[in-house]
Amino acid sequence: MPTPLYQLKAEFFKSLGHPVRVRVLELLSVREHAVGEMLTQVGVEPANLSQQLAVLRRAGLVSSRRDGAVVHYRLTSEQVAELLAVARNILTTVLAGNVELLEDLRADDPGT
Amino acid sequence: MPTPLYQLKAEFFKSLGHPVRVRVLELLSVREHAVGEMLTQVGVEPANLSQQLAVLRRAGLVSSRRDGAVVHYRLTSEQVAELLAVARNILTTVLAGNVELLEDLRADDPGT
DNA sequence: ATGCAATTATGAAACTCTGCAATGAACAAC
DNA sequence: GTTGTTCATTGCAGAGTTTCATAATTGCAT
Q1: Could you tell me if residue A112 is inside a domain?
Q2: B79 domain residue, yes or no
Q3: Which of A13, A51, B67, B96 suits A45 as a labelling partner, its CA being 20 to 30 A distant?
C-alpha cells in the first residue's frame, strides 16, 4: 500500500483534530448553519471561526453557499455525522475503561 | 454542552492524525502485531514507532502486552476498525468529488 | 458611501515531529 | 552472577506546523 495514502488519511483526521472544528461538524450534522449562528454557539472570534471553517473546506468536509450577506455551511456528506457517532462510541468505551481504572485505584489502599 | 468534551473529542481525532499511527491502527485492525512486525511493515526508526505507539496508548486506542522480549499490541476496541472504514468511505466520496473537479477543469478549454 | 457579514493576512506563542543518544527489560552464553 | 545482545521505550533538541489575536480586506445590501 502506497505511503501517500496514509498521509491522506492522516490529513483527514488532522482536520477533525480541533475542538472548534468538532463542534462545527456536530452543529452541521443536525442541519445547515449560517456562520453567524455558529458564532453564537461556538463562542470564538469571527476570524478564528472562519479559519477553522477554511480548514474543513480544504479537507472537503463542508461546503459553503452564499445567500445575500450571510454564508451557509453544510456537510458534504452525511457520512461525516456517522463518523462522529462512531467516534463518540469509542470515546465512551475508552472513558469507561478509565473509570474502572479509577475505581481500582480507589480500592487500592496502600496502607494494608 | 460543556467545552472540555469537545476538547476530548478533538484530542481523540488528533491521535489519529499521523500517517504512522493510521498505518499501525490498520495493521492492528487485522490482528494483534508485535512491535518488530510493525517495524518491517511501517518502515520507520524503532524509536519513532515507539513514540507513535505511546500516543495511541495514551489515547486508549491500543493496549500492549509483553511476551518475553517482544511486546504485542492490539486494539482496545474493534470499533476502531469500524471508524477507519467509515473514514475510508468519506475519503472516497471526497476524492471522487475532486476527480469530477479535475475532469471539469480538463473540459474547460480557456481558448474557446 | 456606510454598515454588516465573513474572509484573508500576518506574526508571535505553543505544540508536534523525528533522529540521536541513553536507558530499561528479558534472556542466552559463559 | 555478570557479560553481551536484542527488543523496546524514553529524553532531548532542532526544525517545522498549528493556533489565535489583531488588523486589513472583500462582498453584499441599504
Answers
A1: no
A2: yes
A3: A13
Residues spanned by the domain of A29: 3-107
| CATH number, domain containing residue A76 | 1.10.10.10
A37–chain B nearest CA distance, Å: 16
DSSP notation for B34-101: EHHHHHHHH-S-HHHHHHHHHHHHHTTSEEEEEETTEEEEEES-THHHHHHHHHHHHHHHHHHHHHHH
Contact B3 A19 (CB under 8 A): yes
Query: Stretch B30-59: mean pLDDT, rounded?
Result: 96
pLDDT value, residue A39: 97
List, in sequence order, every residue forming a beta bridge with A66; answer none if it has no partner: A71
Q: What is the mean pLDDT of chain B?
A: 90
Quote the DSSP letter at residue A111. Answer: T
Cell numbers linked to B77: 476496541
| pLDDT above 60: residue B17 | yes
* pLDDT at position B87 over 60: yes
User: Quick check: B2 contacting A, CB < 8 Å?
Assistant: no
Q: What is the pLDDT of residue A103?
A: 74
Asked if residue B112 is part of any domain, the answer here is: no
Cα separation, B66 vs A12, whole angstroms: 32
Closest CB to A94 among B17, B20, B60: B60
Contact between the CB of B39 and strand D at under 7 Å: yes
Our count of domains for chain B comes to 1
Does residue A48 lie within any of the structural domains?
A: yes
Looking at the DSSP bridge assignments, the partners of residue A109 are: none
What sign has the CA pseudo-torsion A96, A97, A103, A106?
negative
